[in-house]
């Protein structure tokens, strides 16, 4: 394997986060009753005509800008002709000749090194229907047919499975924070096709490539590439021809399986879409789309580390979820203790989310309540120990403020010096023999008295204030 260079190019199909489909007014949905979210255009009824989804174009422009692409402001569509059950029209509306974006780049990090990935093109098109294979029958759900897509195609510049995975992960992060798509690979809103070939090191010419279709997880991308590289290496070492073909990944055997030869590829007979005239986008509108794009994770990451003093690891954990990120940013509007907010989110709250297999926006927890709890700790009204009692309550019920819960549970910290002194004096009087050890073992004496004070008060004494008063009263007593 060390004798050969791995050559990888990636194609990603991304479902756009629009309310309606790309060329019809039918709603976009997932998990609905099959064939209920379709209309005459989706089903290719005679006389039905496509209309372009303006929001879809806006999301495509956002993506082009984030990927540093040249944007073509003259939008044109083409027909990709093929007869297959997943498209009732007998063709797909796409952008074969004039993609809206081209010549982009995206930086990835692999093993501490930065690599610039060249992106050839981004084009808009419509999704096909979903096919469900059962026994010897195929069922078709047209709910997905016509959903807006962008296809993002890299040049063959990736050189390892790790680089390919890092690229898809980075692309997913960009699309998620742009709110272009929910990029859920398990639901098909981000689908990955990987083109893989190998060649002897130093060779400029590409070998026959194999395309592995519809990989639905990062781990499967890695497994498919590693298997395919090993398979092709064995063929090449045995002087056998690597057939240019399309394969699929079988996750039960962790291997790729042949689907069809590239020599059997269809001639799609592309031509201009006659029902959609070219559209010249106004420069001001394109600039407005870019200006109003949401903040990317890379910008947030720098801000979290430099301005909020959060560790890079904690920042990365928060930024893996758009819901967690939005919750964090809303919470810090009510408190300045940024690190404490981050710590609670990625520890106690994340543990609860994992247990319930949910996201933070599904909890009853309010950002203002989490901030209030943190502020009460900082103000010594409650202790960190009390947060273990309060947090489960506010995660399930938002009807009461944190201070109301504190008062109901009677867990407010005792900070009044006179009150603490009145509690400490009886403890000292009952431990006079212990005080004789103070000159030699002062820490043992004060900690013992502190322990008894906490026991008497149920742990509700301000520890710093309590310890200062204990030291003062003990030293006065032994004089």
TrEMBL record:
InterPro entries in UniProt: Asn/Gln-tRNA_amidoTrfase_suB/E, Asn/Gln-tRNA_Trfase_suB/E_cat, Asn/Gln_amidotransferase, Asn/Gln_tRNA_amidoTrase-B-like, GatB, GatB_C_1, GatB_Yqey_C_2, Gln-tRNA_amidoTrfase_suB_CS
EC number(s) on file: 6.3.5.-
Domain Asn/Gln amidotransferase: 326-474
PROSITE patterns linked: GATB
Source taxon at top rank: Bacteria
Keywords assigned by UniProt, alphabetized: ATP-binding, Ligase, Nucleotide-binding, Protein biosynthesis
Record has ATP-binding as a keyword: yes
GO biological process: glutaminyl-tRNAGln biosynthesis via transamidation; translation
GO terms, molecular function: ATP binding; glutaminyl-tRNA synthase (glutamine-hydrolyzing) activity
Chemical reaction(s) catalysed: L-aspartyl-tRNA(Asn) + L-glutamine + ATP + H2O = L-asparaginyl-tRNA(Asn) + L-glutamate + ADP + phosphate + 2 H(+); L-glutamyl-tRNA(Gln) + L-glutamine + ATP + H2O = L-glutaminyl-tRNA(Gln) + L-glutamate + ADP + phosphate + H(+)
Annotated Pfam families: GatB_N, GatB_Yqey
HAMAP family for the chain: GatB
Described purpose of this protein according to its UniProt entry: Allows the formation of correctly charged Asn-tRNA(Asn) or Gln-tRNA(Gln) through the transamidation of misacylated Asp-tRNA(Asn) or Glu-tRNA(Gln) in organisms which lack either or both of asparaginyl-tRNA or glutaminyl-tRNA synthetases. The reaction takes place in the presence of glutamine and ATP through an activated phospho-Asp-tRNA(Asn) or phospho-Glu-tRNA(Gln).
Subunit structure: Heterotrimer of A, B and C subunits.
Family: Belongs to the GatB/GatE family. GatB subfamily.
Name of the protein described by the UniProt record: Aspartyl/glutamyl-tRNA(Asn/Gln) amidotransferase subunit B
Organism encoding this protein: Mesoplasma florum (Acholeplasma florum)
Taxonomic placement: Bacteria, Bacillati, Mycoplasmatota, Mollicutes, Entomoplasmatales
């Amino acid at each position: 394997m060390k004798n050969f260079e791995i050559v990888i190019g990636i194609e990603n199909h991304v479902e756009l986060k629009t309310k309606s489909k790309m060329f019809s007014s039918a709603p976009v949905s997932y998990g609905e009753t099959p064939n209920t979210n379709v209309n005459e255009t989706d089903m290719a009824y005679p006389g039905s005509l496509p209309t372009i989804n303006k929001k879809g174009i806006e999301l495509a422009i956002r993506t082009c800008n984030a990927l540093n692409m040249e944007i073509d402001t003259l939008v044109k569509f083409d027909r990709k002709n093929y007869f297959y059950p997943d498209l009732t029209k007998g063709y797909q509306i796409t952008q074969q000749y004039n993609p809206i974006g081209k010549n982009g780049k995206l930086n990835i990090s692999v093993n501490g090194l930065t690599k610039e990935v060249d992106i050839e093109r981004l084009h808009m098109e419509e999704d096909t229907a979903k096919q469900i294979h059962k026994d010897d029958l195929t069922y078709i759900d047209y709910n997905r047919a016509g959903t807006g897509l962008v296809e993002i195609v890299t040049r063959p510049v990736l050189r390892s499975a790790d680089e390919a995975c890092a690229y898809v992960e980075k692309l997913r992060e960009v699309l998620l924070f742009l709110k272009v798509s929910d990029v859920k690979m398990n639901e098909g809103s981000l689908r990955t096709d990987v083109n893989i070939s190998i060649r002897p090191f130093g060779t400029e010419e590409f070998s026959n490539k194999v395309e592995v279709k519809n990989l639905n997880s990062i781990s499967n991308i890695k497994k498919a590439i590693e298997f395919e590289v090993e398979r092709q290496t064995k063929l090449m070492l045995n002087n056998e021809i690597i057939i240019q073909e399309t394969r699929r990944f079988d996750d039960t055997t962790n291997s790729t399986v042949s689907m069809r030869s590239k020599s059997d590829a269809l001639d799609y007979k592309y031509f201009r879409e006659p029902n959609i005239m070219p559209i010249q986008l106004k420069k001001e509108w394109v600039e407005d789309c870019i200006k109003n794009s949401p903040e990317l994770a890379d910008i947030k990451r720098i801000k979290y580390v430099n301005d909020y003093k959060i560790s890079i690891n904690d920042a990365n954990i928060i930024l893996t979820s758009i819901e967690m990120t939005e919750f964090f940013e809303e919470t810090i509007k009510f408190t300045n203790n940024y690190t404490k907010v981050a710590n609670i989110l990625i520890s106690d709250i994340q543990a609860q989310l994992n247990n319930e297999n949910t996201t933070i926006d599904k909890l009853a927890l309010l950002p203002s309540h989490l901030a209030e709890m943190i502020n009460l700790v900082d103000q010594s009204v409650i202790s960190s120990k009390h947060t273990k009692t309060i947090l489960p309550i506010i995660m399930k019920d938002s009807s009461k403020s944190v201070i109301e819960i504190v008062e109901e549970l009677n867990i407010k910290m005792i900070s009044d010096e006179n009150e603490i002194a009145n509690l400490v004096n009886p403890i000292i009087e009952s431990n006079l023999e212990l005080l004789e050890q103070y000159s030699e073992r002062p820490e043992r004496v004060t900690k013992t008295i502190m322990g008894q004070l906490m026991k008497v008060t149920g742990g509700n004494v301000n520890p710093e204030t309590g310890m200062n008063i204990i030291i003062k009263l003990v030293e006065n007593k032994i004089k």
